[in-house]
């Protein structure tokens, strides 16, 4: 019979192992590297070294249990800079090693009319060092301009802020932690409305899959919420662009009371 310590090690390895953070539908939460295509019949890649118990200081707890403790500390933070600095030590961001994770903070004015949240940032956001500054930001910024909105006047953020992968498909209990972390950010930013980009992000926020139509005029943490397609989906489908533009124009009227 397998011993208790061996069973615990296997459980932790299962929680930490894997290759990428993915959602079962919608836009992938991790984008492939630019210019890298996967041949149809390529040889399988060499296995990546798995995170072990020794590479992350779990203090005798599972990653989720430790992250829950860290969440309680995050709730006590009253400063945005301190909040984002503390996220670098979140154990769910540190599955690739024991050092602090690379976390891209949200950005924009505090107490904005609108907070825009994606499921996660794209690689070009990290390269440019600003949220929604790459291709997704360009697509969204163009649509905002056509709808008489200004993206730079919105708080821009993501639910998963690390440049690294979580290491496996996000578990419901992990979604709950990231949802609660976002609540802390919302409380510090104090937006009047929230705009969600894509169904995967919506899934994290509500812990269940919702149709886009269901999401309109729901509330998150007591704040009115709307949803549009993720910019990468919009870029791939002209019909989604027209639908999103109409939704943004309707949102602009709600924001400015027209």
Briefly summarize what is shown.
The chain has 258 residues and is an alpha/beta fold. It has helices at 4-16, 63-75, 80-87, 123-128, 135-146, 172-189, 199-206, 212-215, 231-236, 238-256, and strands spanning 114-120, 155-160, 193-197, 218-220, 223-228.
Number of helices: 10
Q: How is the CATH topology of the domain at 105-256 named? A: Uracil-DNA Glycosylase, subunit E
- Average pLDDT, all residues: 79
Q: CATH architecture of the domain at 105-256, please?
A: 3-Layer(aba) Sandwich
Q: In terms of per-residue confidence, which ranges show pLDDT below 50 for 5 or more consecutive residues?
A: 1-56
Per the principal axes of the C-alpha atoms, what is the gross shape? globular
**What is the CATH top level name of the domain at 105-256?**
Alpha Beta
Largest sheet: 5 strands, mixed
Helix and strand sequence: HHHEHHEHEHHEEHH
Q: Strand arrangement, largest sheet? A: 2-1-3-5-4
Walkthrough of the structure:
A five-stranded mixed β-sheet has the order 2-1-3-5-4, with helices on both faces. The N terminus is likely disordered. The longest helix has 19 residues. It has 258 residues and is α/β, with parallel strands linked by helices. Helices cover 41% and strands 10% of the residues. The protein is globular, with a radius of gyration of 19 Å. The chain is built from ten helices and five strands. The relative contact order is 0.15. The protein has a domain of 152 residues: 3-Layer(aba) Sandwich (Uracil-DNA Glycosylase, subunit E), CATH 3.40.470.
